[in-house]
Design brief:
- The protein has helices at 51-65, 111-120, 160-164, 168-191, 243-249, and strands spanning 11-15, 19-23, 28-33, 38-39, 42-43, 74-76, 90-94, 97-98, 101-108, 122-123, 126-127, 137-143, 146-147, 194-205, 211-214, 223-227.
- The chain has five helices and 16 strands.
- The protein is globular and about 55 Å long.
- The strands form four sheets. Strands 8, 9, 12, 13, 14, 15 and 16 form a seven-stranded antiparallel beta sheet that branches. Strands 1-2-3-7-6 form a five-stranded antiparallel beta sheet. A two-stranded antiparallel sheet has the order 4-5.
- Strand 4 and strand 5 form a beta hairpin.
- 23% of the residues lie in helices and 27% in strands.
- The longest helix is centred in the last third of the chain and has 24 residues, at 168-191.
- The chain is of the alpha+beta class.
- It has two domains: 11-94, Phosphorylase Kinase, domain 1; 97-249, 2-Layer Sandwich (D-amino Acid Aminotransferase, Chain A, domain 1).
Length: 263
């Protein structure tokens, strides 16, 4: 298995499938992206060289591009408090009280959304017109939240109404911010010849109680990216993300047999 650098200056407070989190002080954290790749609840044993650096660089780019829409937790990607052994794959970030929902925006029908649609004609309670197929572009992007499950358990797609039961005002704000981020991301991606099909965001509250964009943003781990050239609804699209890994894990030879989950 790959070796994760041991950071002696800071206490590790959490470890996920791809990232490690360290406490810098009472207000700041160090978020380190590894080269691991995961899909569903599986972490594959083979790393992808420099994947963590790519995820980090993309998050920095998008945090800056989205700064006028929503504040984010990024403090610096080049601070002296970032140890040399993780520089380039680590972010110094503000500590947040994370919202316990995954906030998903979908502009195209694929993955678990397509599975839901085929079964019910809806995606997370959002009614869609009949006749849509794999990779159909939706008339307007939709917000499809999910519960944030503990590590090792499945996130579960829910309706906006279920989310609003935990606080209608917060749910509406998260929905509106998620869709605004998606629209900005899709607009920028389109200019580069890329389709942003969907994305998953995570938010938290800062010490003042304001909603802040956290974790990663619009990376190939949290989003589906397709080349615009050759796009055609009705078939699976080539991708610039980890859909290839999802497809392999659910192939007959592997036998997980699980439809794509969030997003």
């Amino acid at each position: 298995m790959p070796v994760v650098p041991v950071l002696t200056d800071y206490a590790q407070i959490a470890a996920g499938k791809v990232r490690e989190l360290y406490r810098v002080d009472d207000e700041l954290l160090l978020l380190v992206a590894s080269d691991r790749i995961s899909a569903y609840d599986w972490v594959l044993p083979t790393e992808i060289p420099d994947k963590g650096a790519v995820l980090t660089a993309m998050s920095v780019f998008w945090f800056e591009a989205l700064g006028d829409i929503v504040p984010n937790h990024l403090v610096s990607d080049d601070d002296k408090r970032i140890p040399d052994e993780v520089r380039g794959r680590a972010l110094l970030v503000r500590s947040l009280d994370m919202v316990q929902f995954e906030c998903v925006a979908r502009g195209y029908l694929t993955g678990s959304g397509l599975v839901d649609y085929k079964s019910t004609g809806t995606v997370c309670g959002v009614e869609l017109p009949a006749g849509l197929v794999e990779a159909s572009k939706l008339a307007e992007p939709i917000f499809t939240p999910a519960t944030k499950a503990p590590l090792g358990e499945h996130d579960e797609n829910i309706t906006f109404e279920q989310m609003a039961e935990q606080g209608a005002e917060t749910a509406a704000e998260l929905r509106d911010l998620t869709l605004a981020v998606y629209r900005r991301g899709a607009e920028i991606a389109e200019k580069a010849g890329v389709i942003l099909a969907d994305t998953k965001l995570e938010f938290g509250r800062d010490a003042a109680g304001h909603i802040v964009l956290g974790d990663e943003v619009l990376t190939p781990d949290s989003s589906r990216y397709w080349p615009a050239e050759g796009y055609e609804a009705g078939r699976v699209q080539p991708s610039y993300d980890k859909q290839y890994v999802r497809d392999w894990l659910t192939s007959p030879g592997v036998g997980l047999g699980t439809a794509s989950r969030t997003p």
